[in-house]
Amino acid sequence: MALLDIENLAVSYGPVAALRGVTLAVEEGRITTILGANGAGKSTLLRAALGAVAPRAGTIRFAGADVTRLPVHKRVAAGLSLVPEGRRILITMTIEENLLLGAHLRPDQGAVRAEMAAIYDRFPNLASRRHMAAACLSGGEQQMLAIGRAMLARPRLLMLDEPSLGLSPLFVERLFGLIAELNRGGLSMLLVEQNTGLALGVAHHAVVLELGRVVMQGDPAVLARDPRLQEAYLGESAEPAPQPIPAA
What we know:
By secondary structure, the chain is α/β, with parallel strands linked by helices. 36% of the residues lie in helices and 24% in strands.
């Protein structure tokens, strides 16, 4: 059974349809990546999964339970967590205060402190400035803070929206190393990422959105060889495309 199961999801902003009958699943312990151009509906899909936008139609199930109408805080408590595009940390608050925001629904403060210590061990740049305003951090360090904050919610599924956006090549490499490491530890992920090559390299399953619809999905290695994907997202010229790969 899929950890996250989305069926025929439709979302509109007024008269504008952002998602049109989207169906996909994220399996336990695996990384699913969502690819597509700007405006394809990728961020809307993550926000709908979290409950930040209400669907016009369709069903969202998480860990076997229907969460379609569940509010955001209850989905977070159930194990859904989102690192939004642009990180959205509070730069006037300290690094430690930002981290603690991720644990605001948890009563087990002793365990929270132990997990914060583990985050500081993983990210020593955060540890050395824990009592400083988050504005002192670089973009890459802010992204690590945003991921640490999300991890303190103890997610079963971590959703990442364009995590490499605006980062240096060095931090992008570190970021994808962290994504792979967290997944090896058993964490399931739903990844929206502009760097198509890296996303396909780390994912177990890939979904391509165009204008709010799923147009391809399947094994990342197979999709990476598809001429349409190469031409549109990998910057490679393509021969005339073969028959389309149907959406699973």
